[in-house]
Amino acid sequence: MFPERLSEVQIAVQHALDQAVARLPAGDLRDAIGYAAQGGKRLRAFLVLESAALFGISQAQALPAAAAVEALHAYSLVHDDMPCMDDDDLRRGQPTVHVKWDEATAVLAGDALQTLAFELCCDPTLGPAERRVALVTALAQASGAAGMVYGQALDIAAETAAAPLTLDEITRLQAGKTGALISFAAEAGAILAGADPAPLAAYARALGLAFQIADDILDVEGDAALVGKQVGKDAQAGKATFVSHLGLEGAKSRAAALIDEAETALAPYGAKAQNLRDAARFVISRDK
Amino acid sequence: MFPERLSEVQIAVQHALDQAVARLPAGDLRDAIGYAAQGGKRLRAFLVLESAALFGISQAQALPAAAAVEALHAYSLVHDDMPCMDDDDLRRGQPTVHVKWDEATAVLAGDALQTLAFELCCDPTLGPAERRVALVTALAQASGAAGMVYGQALDIAAETAAAPLTLDEITRLQAGKTGALISFAAEAGAILAGADPAPLAAYARALGLAFQIADDILDVEGDAALVGKQVGKDAQAGKATFVSHLGLEGAKSRAAALIDEAETALAPYGAKAQNLRDAARFVISRDK
């Protein structure tokens, strides 16, 4: 069952992150890093562990990669929440790092979380050095100025653009901002196994886009108390989203079609991919 | 001759960085990354290439690691210069990234430069995967929350501390903020060769500390036009430095003693280490 499996992942990855943070020198910086690494759905960690399981790689072996992708994700949230970026005071229902500490601590904690992500990808537990180097490379490509950070830059630029983004532009933005790291997570198992990541890449592309559409829907229909951050921000800011382009029902049917596409991509893995199929369904039915 | 050798390094590493930046998607983000990756002494790149040469590793082979350490260094400068950190408007004689663009671009350009550094450490040119993984691990340990970022956090905390830092505290701060990355650079050659990095570590420890003392001296005696950034900031802020603790002459003789120590550490490498010896002398005689 997917919710139970996700809970297991949450516990395992939190433990791995807590252990990594505990090795750092004590102080505000470590506290802020540990705080930022708490909570979240851990969908990306789940994708790492489940894609690894497809190739017979145990959770214990793949865990550092799962922790790495969550550390990377946490860094992006800490920086994105800063006043000069999305300016959010609340994240996962808690004050953001720059609110609880200050902006300098947010910059540094985010920086250190990114570093930690790459360090975790080098953990010998993950297997042969060739595979770990491939993992570091893939994470760098997914998260850097051609991936996640590129998407974030497009998002920031959109705020001051003369015209609202087109659907194509939003899709490209999403492919970077959230899609690239979701794709990395889903392909990580194949990378660790030295297998062809193509079917997982197709799954992740559809899943990532559906995930972003669901996020846009949540910003319209969601309950802030459940979502854990402000809702209604997009419409308030006059921001072009999948919902503003497709309408609420159009967005929902597009997301559903993408989930079908994601499931189809998993066909080569047969029954072993059931948890990944369940995750795809979850992405468009979640309330937070 | 050291100045000529440093010029060669500057050209080679700039070319490598320019090539890496050219592969990124066009836009403000790429422009800001390219801008931040320009100029500088390239002392860290020099240390990588010269330590590699001790073990017969060519400049062509070690160049991605030299570019990596400079990308990492550039990221740290972009973030350190931000208003919530050291708040500097000028760097290497040019407007800082957040002045020329904006704070969001500075956050993102710094983030992407860090990512690029880790990606460069995975370049197949560098050699066997085991060595590249060791390099990524060493860079992460030097630059993260137990290394450079830790030192930066101590530096920020010192600004609001009740009492000026003691000499021990300044030394610990420096070991993180500038020392860790200098040590990484000097040890990189041994890491790439699979050799014992201990003599280079001892050299780098002394060199890094002398470098910081020289920086503190430049803040008192330097010419802003040559240094390329504001001078006199430390005294103005009532900041404890090696100069405020040791006096100007005391600081100079401490730096000179450290350079002797650095040279002694290079004894095992004999004549091959002449460029590294010259670099140590340069560090305390530089005017920028």
Automatic annotation (TrEMBL), chains A, B:
Gene3D superfamilies with a match to the protein in the record: Farnesyl Diphosphate Synthase
Keyword presence, Transferase: yes
Alphabetically ordered keywords of this record: Isoprene biosynthesis, Magnesium, Metal-binding, Transferase
Domain of life of the native organism: Bacteria
Keyword field contains Protein transport: no
Cofactor section: Mg(2+)
InterPro entries tied to this protein: Isoprenoid_synthase_dom_sf, Polyprenyl_synt, Polyprenyl_synt_CS, Prenyl_diphosphate_synthase
Pfam families per the UniProt record, alphabetical: polyprenyl_synt
Family stated for the protein in its record: Belongs to the FPP/GGPP synthase family.
Protein name as catalogued: Polyprenyl synthetase family protein
Source organism per UniProt: Rhodobacter flavimaris
